[in-house]
Amino acid sequence: MPPAPIFATLDPDRAFLERAPLLVRDFVTGLFPPSLQWLAGNLLAVVVIVLFFASLFALLTLAERKILGRIQNRPGPNRTGPAGLLQPLADAVKTLVKEDIVPRAADQVLHFLAPVVLVSLALMAFAVLPYGRHLVPVELDAAVLYFFAAGAATELAVFMAGWASRNKYSLLAAMRALAQLISYELPLLLSVVPVVMLAGTLSTTGIVAAQAGWTYGVIPHWHVLTPWGAAGFLLFFVSALAESNRSPFDLPEAESELIAGHLTEYSGFKYALFFMAEYFGMTALCGMGVTLFLGGWQAPCAFLEFIPSYAWFFAKLLLLLGVFMWIRGTLPRLRIDQLTRFAWKFLVPLALINLGTAAFWQLSAGWSGPALQLARWLVALALVAGPFTLLGRRLSAGVAPRTYRYAA
Amino acid sequence: MLASGSAAAPFSSASVRPVHDEFHGDLLEVSMGPHHPSTHGVFRMMVTLDGETIVRLKPVFGYLHRNHEKLGENTTYLGSMPYTDRLDYLCSMTNNWAYALAVEKLAGLVPPERAEYIRIILAELTRLINHSGLIGFLMQDTGCSGTPLMYAFREREKVLDLFEALSGSRMMCNYQRFGGCRVDLTPAWVDSARRLVDAFPRFLDEFEALLTGNEIFMARTQGVGRLSPELAVNAGLTGPVLRATGVGHDLRKVDAYGLYPRFDFRVPIGAHGDTYDRYMIRVLEMRESVQILQQALRDLPAGPIMDPKAKLRGLRPKAGEAYGRIEGAKGEIGFFLISDGSPNPYRYRIRPPSFINLTVLEDLCLGHTVADAVIILGSIDIVLGEVDR
After folding, report:
1. pLDDT tens, position by position, B130-165
2. How many CB atoms lie within 10 A of CB B5?
3. Do B268 and A330 lie within an 8 Å CB cutoff?
4. Nearest 5°: phi and psi at B305?
5. How far is B356 from A190, CA to CA, in rounded Å?
6. Which residues of B touch A401 (CB under 8 A)?
7. What interface predicted TM-score (ipTM) does this complex get?
8. What is the CATH number of the domain that holds B185?
9. Per-residue pLDDT tens for B206-250?
10. Burial group, residue B16, by CB count within 10 angstroms (0-12, 13-18, 19+)
């Protein structure tokens, strides 16, 4: 048992802000006859998710352009509205009024379906994320499984778009997307397995509950603060970058090589839908990362619990999204063979070893006393750091900075 | 979707194979360009792909052809000077210089010392903006979403401001004249140039901290697009592309034109001839250029900026021929002129460095992927205004 927290807290469960979303829900469903209230509740969740994440998408596009702008020594969009805040609106109007061009040779049905399927699949992932203490749209026993199944299916839509466009760049992008999917789905899932193993559940609420509590009231019991959890989080994060086709793994739409990849033949609102799906996918994966490793909606310290849980969730989510954007402004892109080699020769072995580390951590949970605790940490850290160093050295073999001569 | 029916071209290399091959199946022919984000203008690469591996690559250019040489033969000597700005529009100062040098040889003019110093200052500033801009674009091709490019352009802006203050134009400077320069440097200009040059190494350090040791960048460029010194020499390559292969050929040392022998600088050479070497040679050259600039701004003598014998309008050099060449940022930029004693040159021929450097593109790209072809092209450093003329 962890020692009692230093700061005594109120029961956060009862706080008004914490319960506010529930009160709104009860009010709205109360307007319906009792037999329809379950339906109204579910529909309300759907509407809220779609509206909320669509507006978050709009804000994220602006944030990304602003952040990239600041990284690149320029102000970013600032002409539309105060500080460019209306830019997403202007973009939406622009994409809506643009002509929707479908190539004559394209597969008309698939070409139309691809963005629709992509967005709907990307949206499905939001159903199982616990946004707050009482805010899980769908309480599912196999939530983690469901989440990654929906996420993997989005790659199918990317392939549909690439194939149906009848464009060689799109086709190349589709092939790249498939290679990437097969390579990165594996480390992504393998990095999640230790969490499921230790939490003993596939339910997202259960996984968040497994990370509850604080040592001395200030050190949270998040998975990321254990050796296997930190390694798992990094593996998850890198695989998530690849899974959401973000830099430095944005090969399917590599604009300097394949023009726009699978998006080459899309224009107008369908193009916007692809972007929306990319941001949805990115947001959902970050949300899953927060849930699995960063304690979900839990506050980092006991005395900070007065801030409502959903605020913590979104703060962590935005932090991760910010790192996504930071990476995009910094790193060049990998080549397709380097991408797959990185997955198969580095991420997958590390994820498998991490499984063993997590198993060791679970087995040694009963070790008590400072000496044994220290030994437990050291062994786990060695299990994480050793393979990382060795595999990393092999991966970057033959690549090194060089020194240069001068002509006489 | 897949190419069909076209007859296979004569093979130029062992790894080139026909589009239809009963043992390997069909290949994919992609026309990259002329409208492609990474062809640096209206350039086209007909690539034949096996998966993503390039088995054949045919450069197609001429989309920007504007009859430059014929125009030069129908224009007075002075009238051609602004046209040379439009060749390599990033390096108008060095284009001007090479042309002025050719005419000076033809007409027997000698620019005064101060003009030679000004030319060197402007040529090295041009080298700085060309190389930093090139690295920015190369990183853009590598997939950096604009960050290095914006950093490079920030520095380029400062140099372009200097050019504008001096010549009235940022890119189309039209500044050099036969026997000297058009306007003199003011002391304020020299001061701001000195500040820029002194601050430049900090930018280079920042740039290198971001790129040189970047593991992804190294993995993308080391061993990619390897060029042998033999092929480089046989194909007539010049500039950083040649020096990256280990051949220490720099006209500033070889020809010792202008007043370059007075300056203390070194010529960096590579050992592998790959894309990373081509990048690093440019970084090191920029550091040497900063050295030259510091010396030139320190020692800039007073005096006239034009040869008193020089005659700009109605220049009629006596019959003969002359070739003026300098080490431009991209390689040897040369002008060959034949005069028949009339106000127009009888023959006006340009040796554009990026056009000749481009001829080895297929040899560099074979066996690599589409993604590599893009950065190999980027590392060759072409400007289509000069390639197509």
Report:
1. 999 898 888 888 888 788 888 888 889 999 999 999
2. 6
3. no
4. -115, 5
5. 51
6. 212-213, 218
7. 0.80
8. 1.10.645.10
9. 888 888 888 888 888 888 888 888 888 998 899 899 999 988 888
10. middle
For B145, the domain range is 68-388
pTM to 2 decimals?
A: 0.83
The H or E element that residue B292 is part of is helix B275-299
The yes-or-no verdict on residue A19 having pLDDT over 80 is: no
- Closest alpha carbon to B240 in B274, B206, B290: B274
Residue with tokens 């041009």: B126
Query: Into how many domains does chain B fold?
Result: 1
Query: Do residues B125 and B341 touch, judged by C-beta distance below 8 A?
Result: no
Identify whether B6 is part of a domain. no
Which pair of tokens denotes residue B86? Answer: 């439009």
Show which of residues 352-371 on chain A sit within 8 Å of chain B, judged by CB atoms: none
Scan for tokens 């040159």, then name that residue: B345
> Judged by CB atoms within 8 Å, which residues 164-203 of A form the interface with B?
166, 168-169, 171-172, 175-176
- The two tokens of residue B137 are 């674009």
What residue ranges in A179-294 does DSSP mark as E strands?
214-215, 219-220
Tell whether the model's pLDDT for residue B15 goes beyond 70.
no
Residue B175 domain flag: yes
Residues A15, A306: contact at Cβ < 8 Å?
yes
Q: Measured between alpha carbons, how far is B250 from B238 in angstroms, rounded to an integer? A: 8
Pairwise CA distance, residues B125 & B162, whole Å: 10
The per-residue pLDDT for range B27-65, each reduced to its tens digit, is 778 888 787 777 777 888 888 888 778 888 888 888 888
Q: Which of A279, A324, A273, A248 is nearest to A160 (CA)?
A: A273
Tokens of A80: 């539309």
| Residue B378 one-letter amino acid | G
In a domain, B52, yes or no: no
Tokens of A178: 């498939």
CB pairs under 8 A between A and B: 131
Q: Which two tokens stand for residue A168?
A: 């060689």
pLDDT over 60 at A283, yes or no: yes
pLDDT digits (tens, 9 = 90+) for B94-109: 999 999 999 998 888 8
pLDDT tens digit sequence for A180-237: 888 888 898 899 998 888 888 888 888 888 888 778 778 888 888 888 888 889 999 9
Q: Secondary structure of chain A: what % helix, strand, coil (to 5)?
A: 70, 0, 30
